[in-house]
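Structure ticket #2291
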Amino acid sequence: MAKELTFDEKKEKMIANVTGNYAQVEKSIVNQLFMKHDLHGTTVGSEREGIWSQLFEMIIPKKFVIEPSVFIIDSHGGVSKEVDFAILDETYTPYIFRYGKIKFVPIEAIAAVIECKSQSLKVGSLKKWAKSITSLKTSGDSIARIAPGIALGVEGVRSQKSTRPLRILCALEENCGDDIKQHFDFTLLASRENERINIECNAEDTLFNWFKSLNFHEYKMDETLEKETLKLLKEHSLEKYKVHDQDGQSISLLTFNFQLNQLLMLINNPILFPHRAYVGLFDYKGKE
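Resolution: structure written out below.
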Protein backbone atom coordinates (compact mmCIF):
# COMPACT_ATOMS: atom_id res chain seq x y z
CA MET A 1 0.00 0.00 0.00
CA ALA A 2 1.39 3.38 -1.03
CA LYS A 3 2.30 5.77 1.75
CA GLU A 4 -0.12 8.68 1.99
CA LEU A 5 1.52 12.02 1.30
CA THR A 6 1.62 14.66 4.00
CA PHE A 7 -0.03 18.03 3.38
CA ASP A 8 3.37 19.68 2.80
CA GLU A 9 4.34 16.96 0.33
CA LYS A 10 1.07 17.44 -1.54
CA LYS A 11 1.68 21.19 -1.76
CA GLU A 12 5.19 20.62 -3.11
CA LYS A 13 3.87 18.15 -5.68
CA MET A 14 1.13 20.57 -6.78
CA ILE A 15 3.67 23.38 -7.33
CA ALA A 16 5.89 20.99 -9.30
CA ASN A 17 2.88 20.04 -11.43
CA VAL A 18 2.15 23.69 -12.24
CA THR A 19 5.71 24.41 -13.37
CA GLY A 20 5.85 21.11 -15.26
CA ASN A 21 2.60 21.96 -17.03
CA TYR A 22 4.04 25.30 -18.22
CA ALA A 23 7.03 23.47 -19.67
CA GLN A 24 4.73 21.04 -21.52
CA VAL A 25 2.53 23.82 -22.88
CA GLU A 26 5.62 25.69 -24.08
CA LYS A 27 6.91 22.56 -25.85
CA SER A 28 3.50 21.95 -27.46
CA ILE A 29 3.32 25.52 -28.79
CA VAL A 30 6.80 25.27 -30.31
CA ASN A 31 6.00 21.96 -31.99
CA GLN A 32 2.77 23.35 -33.45
CA LEU A 33 4.55 26.43 -34.80
CA PHE A 34 7.25 24.43 -36.56
CA MET A 35 4.75 21.87 -37.88
CA LYS A 36 2.80 24.66 -39.59
CA HIS A 37 6.07 26.19 -40.77
CA ASP A 38 7.40 22.96 -42.28
CA LEU A 39 4.16 21.90 -43.95
CA HIS A 40 3.04 25.21 -45.37
CA GLY A 41 5.94 27.65 -45.40
CA THR A 42 4.51 31.16 -45.25
CA THR A 43 1.04 30.37 -46.62
CA VAL A 44 -0.80 29.93 -43.33
CA GLY A 45 0.43 32.83 -41.25
CA SER A 46 -3.02 33.33 -39.76
CA GLU A 47 -2.97 29.82 -38.30
CA ARG A 48 0.37 30.44 -36.63
CA GLU A 49 -0.98 33.75 -35.32
CA GLY A 50 -3.78 31.72 -33.75
CA ILE A 51 -1.23 29.56 -31.93
CA TRP A 52 0.54 32.62 -30.53
CA SER A 53 -2.81 34.13 -29.58
CA GLN A 54 -3.64 31.10 -27.45
CA LEU A 55 -0.46 31.71 -25.47
CA PHE A 56 -1.54 35.24 -24.56
CA GLU A 57 -5.10 34.14 -23.78
CA MET A 58 -3.59 31.82 -21.15
CA ILE A 59 -1.90 34.61 -19.24
CA ILE A 60 -3.77 37.89 -19.85
CA PRO A 61 -6.34 38.87 -17.16
CA LYS A 62 -9.97 38.90 -18.29
CA LYS A 63 -10.20 42.70 -18.00
CA PHE A 64 -8.17 42.78 -21.22
CA VAL A 65 -9.26 41.57 -24.65
CA ILE A 66 -7.00 40.37 -27.45
CA GLU A 67 -8.12 41.75 -30.81
CA PRO A 68 -6.64 40.61 -34.13
CA SER A 69 -5.99 42.85 -37.16
CA VAL A 70 -6.18 46.25 -35.50
CA PHE A 71 -5.24 49.71 -36.76
CA ILE A 72 -4.39 52.11 -33.94
CA ILE A 73 -5.16 55.80 -34.29
CA ASP A 74 -4.55 58.93 -32.25
CA SER A 75 -6.46 62.21 -32.01
CA HIS A 76 -3.83 63.99 -34.12
CA GLY A 77 -4.74 61.90 -37.18
CA GLY A 78 -1.95 59.34 -36.83
CA VAL A 79 -2.66 55.77 -37.94
CA SER A 80 -0.43 52.77 -37.27
CA LYS A 81 0.38 49.96 -39.64
CA GLU A 82 -1.80 46.91 -39.11
CA VAL A 83 -1.16 45.15 -35.80
CA ASP A 84 -1.51 41.35 -35.72
CA PHE A 85 -2.85 41.45 -32.15
CA ALA A 86 -3.60 44.27 -29.75
CA ILE A 87 -4.15 43.79 -26.03
CA LEU A 88 -6.59 46.45 -24.90
CA ASP A 89 -8.81 47.47 -22.06
CA GLU A 90 -12.37 48.11 -23.25
CA THR A 91 -13.56 49.33 -19.87
CA TYR A 92 -13.44 53.08 -20.50
CA THR A 93 -12.40 53.49 -24.13
CA PRO A 94 -14.80 53.29 -27.09
CA TYR A 95 -13.90 51.82 -30.44
CA ILE A 96 -13.68 54.60 -33.00
CA PHE A 97 -14.76 52.29 -35.77
CA ARG A 98 -15.50 48.58 -35.84
CA TYR A 99 -17.09 46.71 -38.70
CA GLY A 100 -16.48 43.00 -39.18
CA LYS A 101 -12.75 42.39 -39.09
CA ILE A 102 -11.85 46.05 -39.58
CA LYS A 103 -11.06 47.82 -36.30
CA PHE A 104 -9.70 51.28 -35.54
CA VAL A 105 -8.84 51.58 -31.86
CA PRO A 106 -7.61 54.70 -30.00
CA ILE A 107 -4.03 54.59 -28.73
CA GLU A 108 -5.33 55.43 -25.23
CA ALA A 109 -6.85 51.93 -24.94
CA ILE A 110 -3.85 49.87 -26.06
CA ALA A 111 -1.74 48.09 -23.43
CA ALA A 112 0.39 45.97 -25.80
CA VAL A 113 0.84 45.25 -29.50
CA ILE A 114 1.99 41.89 -30.86
CA GLU A 115 3.59 41.21 -34.22
CA CYS A 116 3.73 37.56 -35.32
CA LYS A 117 6.27 36.49 -37.95
CA SER A 118 7.59 33.22 -39.35
CA GLN A 119 10.06 33.73 -42.18
CA SER A 120 9.71 37.30 -43.43
CA LEU A 121 11.68 39.12 -40.73
CA LYS A 122 12.87 42.19 -42.58
CA VAL A 123 14.57 44.78 -40.41
CA GLY A 124 13.36 47.73 -42.48
CA SER A 125 9.68 46.78 -42.45
CA LEU A 126 9.70 45.88 -38.73
CA LYS A 127 11.41 49.17 -37.91
CA LYS A 128 8.72 51.06 -39.83
CA TRP A 129 6.03 48.99 -38.08
CA ALA A 130 7.46 49.84 -34.66
CA LYS A 131 7.82 53.53 -35.57
CA SER A 132 4.18 53.68 -36.69
CA ILE A 133 3.30 52.65 -33.11
CA THR A 134 5.77 54.85 -31.22
CA SER A 135 4.85 57.94 -33.24
CA LEU A 136 1.24 57.84 -31.99
CA LYS A 137 0.51 60.22 -29.12
CA THR A 138 -2.06 60.01 -26.37
CA SER A 139 -4.03 63.18 -25.67
CA GLY A 140 -4.51 64.84 -22.30
CA ASP A 141 -7.77 66.57 -23.26
CA SER A 142 -9.97 64.45 -21.00
CA ILE A 143 -12.73 65.12 -18.49
CA ALA A 144 -13.59 62.46 -15.93
CA ARG A 145 -14.67 61.96 -12.35
CA ILE A 146 -11.94 60.55 -10.15
CA ALA A 147 -11.86 59.95 -6.39
CA PRO A 148 -10.83 63.52 -5.37
CA GLY A 149 -13.31 65.15 -7.78
CA ILE A 150 -13.20 66.09 -11.46
CA ALA A 151 -10.03 65.65 -13.52
CA LEU A 152 -9.93 68.28 -16.26
CA GLY A 153 -7.11 67.12 -18.54
CA VAL A 154 -4.02 65.19 -17.50
CA GLU A 155 -2.98 67.88 -15.04
CA GLY A 156 -5.64 66.49 -12.72
CA VAL A 157 -4.11 63.01 -12.85
CA ARG A 158 -0.80 62.80 -11.04
CA SER A 159 0.62 59.40 -11.94
CA GLN A 160 -0.28 58.94 -15.62
CA LYS A 161 0.14 61.73 -18.15
CA SER A 162 0.66 59.77 -21.38
CA THR A 163 1.20 56.16 -22.30
CA ARG A 164 2.56 53.82 -24.94
CA PRO A 165 1.88 50.15 -25.71
CA LEU A 166 4.35 47.39 -24.99
CA ARG A 167 5.77 46.05 -28.27
CA ILE A 168 6.10 42.26 -28.51
CA LEU A 169 7.49 40.16 -31.36
CA CYS A 170 6.59 36.47 -31.72
CA ALA A 171 8.76 34.61 -34.23
CA LEU A 172 10.96 31.60 -34.95
CA GLU A 173 14.36 32.00 -33.34
CA GLU A 174 16.35 31.00 -36.42
CA ASN A 175 15.12 34.10 -38.24
CA CYS A 176 15.65 36.81 -35.61
CA GLY A 177 18.79 38.82 -34.86
CA ASP A 178 19.69 41.65 -32.49
CA ASP A 179 19.03 44.26 -35.19
CA ILE A 180 15.37 43.27 -35.02
CA LYS A 181 15.06 42.78 -31.26
CA GLN A 182 15.96 46.41 -30.54
CA HIS A 183 12.60 47.57 -31.91
CA PHE A 184 10.61 45.49 -29.40
CA ASP A 185 10.23 45.42 -25.62
CA PHE A 186 9.94 41.63 -25.63
CA THR A 187 10.83 38.95 -28.17
CA LEU A 188 9.27 35.49 -27.92
CA LEU A 189 11.37 33.23 -30.14
CA ALA A 190 10.41 29.59 -30.69
CA SER A 191 13.47 27.32 -30.79
CA ARG A 192 13.27 24.01 -32.65
CA GLU A 193 16.55 22.85 -31.12
CA ASN A 194 15.46 22.76 -27.47
CA GLU A 195 11.66 22.96 -27.97
CA ARG A 196 11.46 26.15 -25.91
CA ILE A 197 10.27 29.70 -26.33
CA ASN A 198 13.27 31.87 -25.59
CA ILE A 199 11.88 35.08 -24.16
CA GLU A 200 14.01 38.20 -23.91
CA CYS A 201 13.29 41.62 -22.47
CA ASN A 202 15.01 44.20 -24.65
CA ALA A 203 13.92 47.45 -23.02
CA GLU A 204 13.94 49.02 -19.56
CA ASP A 205 15.78 47.56 -16.57
CA THR A 206 14.24 48.76 -13.29
CA LEU A 207 10.52 48.96 -12.61
CA PHE A 208 11.02 52.70 -12.10
CA ASN A 209 12.14 53.07 -15.72
CA TRP A 210 9.21 50.94 -16.86
CA PHE A 211 6.79 53.06 -14.83
CA LYS A 212 8.21 56.23 -16.32
CA SER A 213 8.19 54.88 -19.88
CA LEU A 214 4.65 53.49 -19.75
CA ASN A 215 2.96 56.36 -17.88
CA PHE A 216 4.96 59.41 -18.96
CA HIS A 217 5.80 58.63 -22.58
CA GLU A 218 7.52 61.76 -23.97
CA TYR A 219 6.24 63.69 -20.95
CA LYS A 220 8.17 65.17 -18.01
CA MET A 221 7.35 63.65 -14.62
CA ASP A 222 6.60 65.84 -11.64
CA GLU A 223 9.85 66.12 -9.68
CA THR A 224 8.31 65.08 -6.36
CA LEU A 225 6.57 62.07 -7.89
CA GLU A 226 9.77 61.06 -9.66
CA LYS A 227 11.69 61.04 -6.38
CA GLU A 228 8.94 59.08 -4.62
CA THR A 229 8.64 56.38 -7.29
CA LEU A 230 12.40 56.15 -7.79
CA LYS A 231 12.80 55.41 -4.09
CA LEU A 232 10.12 52.70 -4.25
CA LEU A 233 11.00 51.01 -7.53
CA LYS A 234 14.70 51.54 -8.29
CA GLU A 235 15.72 48.26 -6.62
CA HIS A 236 13.13 46.18 -8.48
CA SER A 237 13.74 44.75 -11.95
CA LEU A 238 12.09 42.16 -14.19
CA GLU A 239 15.21 40.01 -13.73
CA LYS A 240 13.88 39.20 -10.25
CA TYR A 241 10.68 37.77 -11.76
CA LYS A 242 12.39 34.78 -13.35
CA VAL A 243 11.15 31.33 -12.35
CA HIS A 244 13.60 28.41 -12.50
CA ASP A 245 13.14 24.64 -12.47
CA GLN A 246 15.06 22.17 -10.29
CA ASP A 247 17.97 22.28 -12.74
CA GLY A 248 18.24 26.06 -12.51
CA GLN A 249 16.85 26.56 -16.01
CA SER A 250 14.39 29.39 -16.60
CA ILE A 251 10.76 28.36 -17.14
CA SER A 252 10.27 30.90 -19.89
CA LEU A 253 6.50 30.97 -20.24
CA LEU A 254 5.81 31.16 -16.49
CA THR A 255 8.46 33.87 -16.15
CA PHE A 256 6.87 35.88 -18.97
CA ASN A 257 3.47 35.50 -17.31
CA PHE A 258 4.70 37.25 -14.15
CA GLN A 259 6.81 39.84 -16.00
CA LEU A 260 4.08 40.91 -18.42
CA ASN A 261 1.37 41.05 -15.78
CA GLN A 262 3.60 43.09 -13.49
CA LEU A 263 4.01 45.67 -16.25
CA LEU A 264 0.27 45.67 -16.91
CA MET A 265 -0.20 46.41 -13.20
CA LEU A 266 2.03 49.47 -13.59
CA ILE A 267 -0.46 50.75 -16.17
CA ASN A 268 -3.41 49.26 -14.23
CA ASN A 269 -6.14 51.22 -16.00
CA PRO A 270 -6.17 52.86 -19.43
CA ILE A 271 -5.44 56.56 -19.63
CA LEU A 272 -8.56 58.74 -19.29
CA PHE A 273 -10.17 58.91 -22.71
CA PRO A 274 -10.00 62.36 -24.41
CA HIS A 275 -13.41 62.51 -26.13
CA ARG A 276 -13.03 66.20 -27.07
CA ALA A 277 -9.71 65.55 -28.83
CA TYR A 278 -11.31 62.94 -31.10
CA VAL A 279 -14.31 65.20 -31.69
CA GLY A 280 -11.82 67.78 -32.93
CA LEU A 281 -10.26 65.22 -35.27
CA PHE A 282 -13.52 64.28 -36.98
CA ASP A 283 -15.55 67.50 -36.74
CA TYR A 284 -15.16 69.30 -40.07
CA LYS A 285 -17.39 72.17 -38.94
CA GLY A 286 -15.19 72.71 -35.92
CA LYS A 287 -12.12 72.83 -38.18
CA GLU A 288 -13.75 75.55 -40.28
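Closing remark: The radius of gyration is 21 Å.
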